[in-house]
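[Automated response] Your request has been received and processed.

Submitted sequence:
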Amino acid sequence: MSLLLHQLRAEQLIFWRSREAAVFIFIFPLLLFLLLGSVYEDEIDGDPAASVLLAGMLGYGVANTAFGGLAITLVLRREYAILKRIRSTPLPPALYFASVLASTLLVFAVQAVALVVLGKLLFDAEIPSRLGSLAFTLLLGAAAFAALGVALASLIRSAEGSSAVVNVIVLPMAFVSGSFGPTDGYPAVLRAIAEALPLRHFVEIVNGIVLDGEHVWERPGAVAFLLAWGIVGLVVALRRFGWEPRER
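Generated structure:
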């Protein structure tokens, strides 16, 4: 346990000392929330606009942090032979991965708290009444998207293309899934695509908790869909992930 905590501390120091990572992964969702909160006023589809945007930004945050940020980090470390060098040390690979995932979850937890606090202080968003269900949902979503992030890292071949691939996936997915506002007016084809994406179902669960005071188990279909995507990501990661730089 002490070795895990030591490595977790190291991962946190690496993350927060990297200005690019801190801005892209941690600060960007907060900035988007501030911008969207300044544009939308009063209500969205009968619900307080600030609360709707808070739920959406929690969804975008988990996709950007646990999925996109983790994928980019792993690809860069693999292609710069950092993972290869770590693999040659006495540090157990499982413990290293546990520390990386725990660090990612910790960053997202702090980000989620910051989003809730910003929503309350600046836009008078309501504090969710089902905090236990919300915390469990955020943990479940972060775990599922982290598995997908490792899977994506195993498929990206170059460090140069990692950021482009992640943004091409995350931003459109967040847009059609309702992270940036209501999707009722979207074309039917975009709504159909969204129904096949894990973020759409994660946002649905968070919406139920934040806006309607639901428990997480009141959306069993969305929870099962999110879990299924997480399992798919885990299977791909176990089969395809490598520690060696890819051939150019």
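Summary generated for your ticket: Residues 2-240 form one domain. The beta strands are 43-44, 47-48.
If you did not submit this request, please reply to this message.
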